[in-house]
Amino acid sequence: MKTLLKNGLLYLNHGFEKKDLLLRDGIISQIGESLEDGEAEVTDLEGKKVAPGFFDIHTHGAVNVDVNAASAEDFEAICRFFASKGVTSWLCSILTDTREQTLACIEEYKRWKTLEHKGADLAGIHLEGPFLCAEYKGAMPEHLLRPADLELLKEYQEAAGGDIRYITVSPEVEGIVDMIPEIKKLGIQTAIGHSGADYDTARAAIKNGAAASTHTGNAMKLLHQHFPAIWGAVLEDDDLYCEMICDGRHLHPGTVRLIIKTKGLDRVIAVTDSIMASGLPDGKYKLGVNDVVVVDGDAKLAVGGSRAGSTLTMDAALRNLLEFTGRPIEELIPVMTENPARLMGMYGSIGSIDTGKDGDLVVLDEENRVFSTYSKGKMQYHV
Fold it and tell me: Domain 2-50+353-382, what architecture?
């Protein structure tokens, strides 16, 4: 199967160039000027921008599907919705739950892999917990939080066939700092968050291999001039990636600009942290075991009123970033493509437009809205 995309502005080497692109058997086969292939289906993009497909590494659901309760078919529904938002890869984020329910969710993820599939690629699993502190639990059920348990994590990873790629832990939880190198040996990247850790404890976690910060600035102890805490530690570090929820609610636009200025654009990652209400009207929803109420697109726990994920989509996050920062789109695209792919060790196949890489592309119109999406070389969405 071949598809020839002509007259697009391709995002190459962190800038846009007018080039043609040939997709063959799911792979980017050729990039160049005035390409021709008599066997290919030709699409004239008429000067539209072509970026790598977006990669959302932290989401709990969409379109009335909650990841913790999702069936394989439900995962597929999310895949198809996400494709309409420019997403070509995503990780399903399992909220802290019982061992039995976590394993059940992993089994449904594995069953999804056997389905005939369209839409975005479900590229693995993110565990948000259960090794988290109670004080900054957010929407995590407190009675299910636990100290470090490497054997439990090994059980989960074995059940997932090695597809748990990412886990959020709190550095101050008993045994976690020492466990981080062992987590990495399991093929899992560690993020720190949901935490009131002091500066030294957070720095110890980073030194031991923590590679990211979960929804930076949310559900974590904030910076004080005398006690920089976990937020100060993650902002200071040159190598650690910082997730950001760019919906204008979780982070003030000025805070987004400050994080980018402090970290640099190569160390921030846009995530949605979306829940099942994404793509749907206001109303009553679930997030794991929690009841959630969405008013004016803002998701909060029915009891306590704490913010509980978002209704954000990745295409909206891009437009928000453009508005919040005033930066050109060329500078911002890596925040949702290259950076998450590098963090997850997947940059060899996704995250940029290059020959030999997967045909994961999003075509954007003049207003930076999704015009079409290609996943593994196949068109999965078109306006």
Answer: Roll (2.30)
